[in-house]
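Exam review. A common question shows you a sequence with its structure tokens and asks you to describe the fold in words. Practice with the pair below. Do the first one on your own.
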Amino acid sequence: MVHRGEADIAVSKISITEQKSIVVGFSYPYNIETLTFATRAPGAIPKTSAIFYPFSFQTWICLAFLLIAIPMLFCKFLKKKYSIVSLAFRVYGILLHQELLLKVRAVSDKLLLGSWLWGAMILSLCYTTLLLSFLTVPVKEKGVQTIDELAAAASRGRYKCMTYQGSSSMWILQNSKTDSVRSIGESILKNNGLIKLNGGV
């Protein structure tokens, strides 16, 4: 409007960019705003897969190796008094609060059995408590938390970033010294994410 001669002065939230400075003169900035990002709110995770919530993927892998190793360890210490399949059912039954039908006499066997009983009790208690909390309070999907995560999501096409055409935001994104911020600017141009504004300065 100003550079077309339709107005002598414009007073508003006008961003200062290098392109605008070519055709209009700006006063000293009276307000400095920060640049933030808004993404959609994470949705709730379905409760059908709640049995996997209490532990992380790495923890489940460790537990899988542990559950494989425990029957073998019992089989070795008990000197093959029981088959490994029988031991597996008996040992795993403790996690489900079943009675452990194992006859042990040696002190080392009792220590091994006692250690597993304590470990199984703590493991079962932690899992049950966490599972109950997850079922009581809805669990949200993990949303984008940082600029790096947003840049990665935008580059993979999971998020479409948009901004106003001619605003300072695009100039900041394209000329940033941070790779992830520049990547967001490139994603906006690549996916036609510029929104046209009616009128202008």
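Now try the second one, then compare your answer with the model answer below.
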Amino acid sequence: MIPSFRDHRTRQLFLSYAKDWVLIIALILAFFSLDILEPFHRQFSLTDKSLMYPYAEHEKVPTGLLVVVCFIVPLVVISCIALLIQKSPFDLHNGVMGLLLSLALTIMVTEVVKLSVGRPRPDFLDRCKPIPGSVDPPLGLSNSTICMPTDKYILSDGFKSFPSGHSSMSFGGLAYLSFYLAGKLHVFDRRGHTYKGFIFALPMVGAALIAISRTEDYRHHWQDVTFGGIIGVVFAYFSYHQYYPSLRHQESHKPFSPRIARLSDSDRVSTAEQALTADFDLPSNSPSRDGSLATDLESVRIDHSGNARRGDQSTAGHQLPSATDLNE
């Protein structure tokens, strides 16, 4: 028989993290809602050479590959470490929740800033395709009304240069993975193991390469990828420390304890008594149900350590479960 408190504690544990999951889902839904909005159309100059780069039809790191690198790869690594090495489903839960929180906060903030700033991309004029003969007004700048785009989405996306979403997302996922690995390896334990530093830096290098590729595709200015990277690292650091201690902590490899309180000694004893009662529960057609059951229960005592005994003798012939065993 499985004690009922197990199901109760499982529900308590789930509910204690329900708000976190709701927030993460809400942030992701908010991102998709904002992504369809029109960004601010900032004015520009037709003679600005930083906007004259060609529009690349094929990106070095398309969105699908970005999702694999910044989410699927960290998810697989965290799952393998938590289940195969740590052997802790709770570590898996906290690790994945922190990863999702990091990415959700990153994409949400990045999208809000993109829509608000409306900075033209380096390939904007190629997207805009200005009316032939267009020039900037005297003592002024041009606006998007002079554009003759073949695709309105491409033109609208041309005003989403700052900050770089690829850069922020790559650091939001891979920097989080770096922090997770650093905690498991005790990188900052002041013992100077060089190989740990390489493992810690490897995901960061991957994120940096993705950010650099955005300048090679002429999708972003260097300021865009720099600020995007900062956003990703900040939220990765914040999200990691919501569920794990400082990287300098002697138990940095362990997640924070569950948010529900542990069972007290009195709860353990009560649970053991319930289990013992169930253990002596006989079928209704048993001839010994009326008499011997009451006698047996009266002779059962549970000492302060949670061990079940019959009278002064240990129940060697009929081993009864202890409260500690039940809790496990």
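Model answer, second protein: The first strand starts at residue 300 and ends at 302. Strands lie at 300-302, 308-310. Full marks require stating both points clearly.
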